[in-house]
Design brief:
This is ADP-ribosylglycohydrolase. Its cofactor is Mg(2+). The chain is an all-alpha fold. The protein folds into two domains: about 60 residues, no CATH class; about 300 residues, ADP-ribosylation/Crystallin J1 (ADP-ribosylglycohydrolase fold, Orthogonal Bundle), CATH 1.10.4080.10. The N and C termini lie far apart (about 45 Å).
Length: about 450
């Protein structure tokens, strides 16, 4: 069985990158792995093409333990604890606490953005552009299609295997199942059960109860395994988890902002409680930033005000804060995406830093235009569905469901499929439940 995001030989290659980013000297461990015949290049899709021999897999386990025992460089500007994060933050912004309900636009926008990016997830930026040019849709301003796509282009850039049957213009029928929507639905259930005082253990229990193991990925798959191994928080986020600063926690936290309109600090705290189950440092910051974006989008009137407010929950010296600032600055240039790729092109396509920069770029450059904003997030070519989902949620809340546009809303048919218990959900019902929790 080719199991992604879990085999020791695949985890080790990713851990070389993550440990080096944390200031560990991985040189000798890496050399031993190469000398034994191991591949030090991380697998793009989560698993290498060939399983390791029993001896090589055993060595990978040993080397992972050795890397974990190495001291990391001090990082006072990037703490994990909430109190330590708070101590680094500027004063919280004073935002309006409006009674206006924007939850339907937020849920709808998140679904539409996610759906736009699904068929090209894992396809690099140049492949997305070639597909669009070949089908007469460059620059992107509508759903992807396979109609008219030349065979050679299709062979060079195959659609995402799981998404192509449900996410192209000719076959969309409601929002198909996706982890970017499973997690917000799960967060809503969490809040309905436990209120705003839920704990990280409550999050863990709900995962084990409702999330199919095969529908969690990267850091979440590692944390899930650690839960089954009876490891406590925050060890769940660290043990054999080289994906601890990737995007997984960022995609889980919009609902915490939607139920905290104008309270970006409160939304960030809820996101921290959730994120620490599976992530550390910038992985956590991505989650609290996404929650703050969602919170601000419920009460202010422009994406720039949203971005300003959300930055106040980020440790100012963190790499996540730097990525967000860089993304916003890149939006001022016609070659902004080139600048993002020059800066962050060495990172895996699911890392939090490059994708946060894209989210900031797409929001700032799109300037409140829903279609343009989600299209920019997708054509960046990293985690296309996740980045566009976050962007879509923000802009959808700002403009409202009627101004998202029927082009984007009608194919959703007010339906979101899910692998969670209870099956398909109506978007209007999710919005009403979210508004109820917020009240």
């Amino acid at each position: 069985m080719r199991l992604t995001w879990a085999q020791p030989e695949d985890l080790l290659a990713h851990e070389f990158v993550q440990s080096a980013a944390e200031g560990r000297d991985v040189t000798s461990v890496r050399e031993r792995w190469i000398a034994a015949g191991g591949d030090p290049v991380p697998a793009v899709s989560g698993a290498g093409p060939r399983p390791a021999s029993p001896a090589l897999r055993a060595l990978a386990r040993t080397l992972l333990d050795e890397l974990a025992a190495l001291p990391a460089a001090p990082s006072p500007g990037e703490p994990d604890g909430w109190d330590e994060i708070l101590a680094l933050l500027p004063a919280a912004p004073v935002l309006p606490r409006r009674a206006e309900d924007r939850t339907l636009g937020a849920w709808t926008g998140r679904a539409a953005g996610c759906l736009l990016g699904k068929p090209v997830e894992k396809i690099p930026r140049e492949g997305i552009e070639e597909i669009l040019r070949a089908t007469g849709r460059w620059p992107l301003d509508r759903w992807f299609t396979a109609v008219g796509l030349p065979d050679d282009v299709a062979a060079r850039w195959p659609w995402n295997r799981r998404s192509a049957p449900t996410s192209l213009e000719e076959n969309i029928s409601g929002m198909p199942e996706d982890d970017d929507l499973n997690y917000p639905i799960l967060a809503l259930t969490l809040l309905e059960r436990h209120g705003r005082e839920f704990t990280t253990d409550d999050v863990a229990q709900l995962w084990l109860e409702q999330l199919p193991a095969g529908r969690v990925f990267t850091a979440e798959r590692a944390a899930y395994r650690n839960l089954l191994d009876a490891r406590p928080v925050p060890e769940t986020a660290k043990h054999l988890n080289p994906f601890r600063e990737w995007i997984g926690a960022l995609i889980r936290t919009d609902v915490f902002g939607w139920v905290s309109p104008g309270d970006v600090r409160g939304a960030a705290r809820l996101a921290w409680v959730d994120a620490r189950l599976s992530h550390t440092r910038n992985g956590i910051y991505g989650a609290i930033w996404a929650a703050a974006l969602a919170s601000a989008a419920m009460v202010v009137d422009s994406v720039h005000s949203v971005l300003d407010a959300a930055e106040t929950v980020l440790p100012p010296e963190s790499r996540l804060a730097e990525a967000v600032r860089f993304g916003r600055e890149a939006a001022a240039y016609d070659d902004g995406l080139d600048r993002l790729h020059a800066r962050y092109g060495d990172l895996h396509w699911v890392h939090v830093l490059n994708n946060a920069a894209v989210i900031a770029y797409a929001l700032a450059r799109g300037d409140g235009d829903f279609g343009q904003s989600i299209s920019l997030a997708v054509t960046a070519g990293w985690d296309t569905d996740s980045a566009a989902a976050t962007v879509g949620g923000v802009v959808g809340a700002l403009v409202g469901v009627d101004w998202i546009g029927e082009q984007w809303t009608k194919p959703l048919d007010n339906r979101i499929a899910t692998s969670l218990p209870g099956g398909e959900q109506r978007i209007t019902d999710l919005a009403a439940r979210t508004a109820g929790v917020a009240r």
